[in-house]
Amino acid sequence: xxxRELTQPVLERAPQLSTFVDLLDxxxxxxPDRTLYRFLLDGTPNTAEVITYGQFQQRxxxxxxxxxxxxCQEQPVLLLYPAGLDYIAAFFGCLYAGxxxxxxxxxxxxxxxxxxxxxxQDAGATVALTDSPTLQKLERxxxxxxxxxxxxxxxxxxxxxxxxxxxxxxxxxxxxxxxxQYTSGSTALPKGVMISHDNLLHNSELISRCFGNxxxxxxxxxxxxxxxxxxxxxxxxxxxxxxxMTLMPPVAFLQRPLRWLEAISHYRATTSGGPxxxxxxxxxxxxxxxxxxxxxxxWQLAFTGAEPIQQATLAQFAEAFAPCGFQPGAFYPCYGMxxxxxxxTGDSAHPEPQHLTLKASDLQNNRVTPVxxxxxxxxxxxxxxxxxxxxxxxxxxxxxxxxxxxxNTIGEIWVRQSRSIAQGxxxxxxxxxxxxQATLADGExxxxxxxxDLGFFRGDDLYVTGRLKDLIIIRGRNHYPQDIxxxxxxxxxxxxxxxxAAFSVAGADTEHLVIVHELERTAxxxxxxxxxxxxxxxxxxxxxxxxxxxxxxxxxxxxxxTSSGKVQRHLCRSMFLAGEFEVVYEWAMTAADWGVGGDGxxxxxxxxxxxxxxxxxxxxxxxxGVGLDTPAAIADWMVTWLAQTLNVPKSTLDIRQPLADYGxxxxxxxxxxxxxxTALGISLSPxxxxxxPTIEALSVYLASALGQDPEALPQEDAVSSxxxxxxxLEQLVRELELxxxxxxxxxxSRQAYY
Length: 754
Fold this sequence. Notes:
By secondary structure, the protein is an alpha/beta fold. It has 26 helices and 27 strands.
């Protein structure tokens, strides 16, 4: 069992510290030349950028002087950086200036600015910080947005370090706001969670105690720094305990999950983790031969959270990496949210994570009845998220009566007020009152945070079962949308994993279940929509005893999702009722009762559209690296690879047509670059398909890179017709970093590229 004994609290060793500014100053005084962060530009040690405590403090203070001169004290400042040391320095620059950091991310090319506009409007931010490459791309786009034209955006990577000498301590204290952590917006517009310095310090202390982190710990993280797990857990925690931290861009992990494990092995990390899908990818995208190079024996704590934790994932990962020295007892399921700064519960009392299999019929009625996995009425296994970090802090409450639920009953998870509970929602008094100041029916137990999550206790362990607002109630029975969505994505090969939403809509007589689901990219040409619909209806009826009222099939990436990749079910419902989806195919049992856009069709089954047919499945495998010595040979290899990947005939691919026309999205472009890298034996940029966006242009470039004579294709015309400007390429790198968890799980799982 991993040793997670509680250590002496950091603040008891230095009681004068009341802010993270105090903490960084104290650490810098103690060990100015010690490494604080190591950032791996491409996920490998040979591209590491290292910054010490002293260097980091200097950069933060220089940015603070800039913000002070702009009058940003006590004002929100938007951070629009890609992952990297510039982002972290800007965050601390806000703290050192007494400003309020608003973590965000650069907008993706050709994507809506709606989220950033909503954040700027809600926060009232007038200043945004970024780096020079991002600023070059942003200036034009910000000018095109009415809501963002007044946002003053400037870069910080060119500041002179000597500017730090002008820094003066700001008038801040423990309750001063440090940041606005904007929520994902799964059920509504994003809300800014007000997090103070004291919130950050207290939750950092809880994490250090529960995880057993000390100055001797070593961490590795690829998590996005603009979300709470990446920021509080990956960036602030190592500073809090004085530990060394290795960071990498999210895209480095997504392109090659092995890099995460290689960094853990190389730097002998003791603490690292991520969402459930990250462990899945590591199993799917590594080979036994690659695993033989890893030493994971020092990995003492592998935390997992931020999305439903699957017992099968934990078991498969433990089995796959046991030869590398990974111990199942290292797994650390945990639960938390932005409103609690981060951590609420974490496992520490068991040698391995706990899990239960529950009786399905009782689960639908909010009753907890454990059964054997082989039981015919078994529901999905549920993994425990450990014990409350503060004893007696978490209660299970009836969301309607506000009374405590009896044992073995599912209710809403309420968290008692503590120093880790955020101050509320920025400029939203009503929402703050409803969410942060709830009271039990007895009126004598103080204030609670309503999480909106459903769960129960089994012994001392918390089990999370779903979201209160997303609960589907049909015929008096409760159904969790994530369970239905999990069934739906397995119903037919044409359906995109993680690309579905389940919700209910009121009809004339009862609630009706609606499934909105993205098709796989390859299925747009050859899917039989009627067969897909029939498979969905059959699977959901068999697994959940539910009839489906309507099914809507969409193109890839058409599903509205939050910045962290969560499906926005409530927005899906609104778009369905308003007829706002760009539908590939739609089916409904009846049309009269829905009130949706469109005519509903005239047939008995209500078909309203059809998928364009065409294309055949290609058999065989692409041979890598055989005779790739001319542009023509490379072009032919790519045509074969793309045809197999996109599941289209080779004859339909024009080497002079942009790859984007074939639905080659960001992750597929990464897959192509990785496959070419393996085939040619040279290192290639993951954005290669954007730099040379046609097969012809890319083939000429690659032949030139190999030192071959590109006589078979016109090099000058091909390259000049396909190349984009360097500023756009920089932004495309940023785009790859912003892929959501769901997009990663969907797109990377399609084929191995090693």
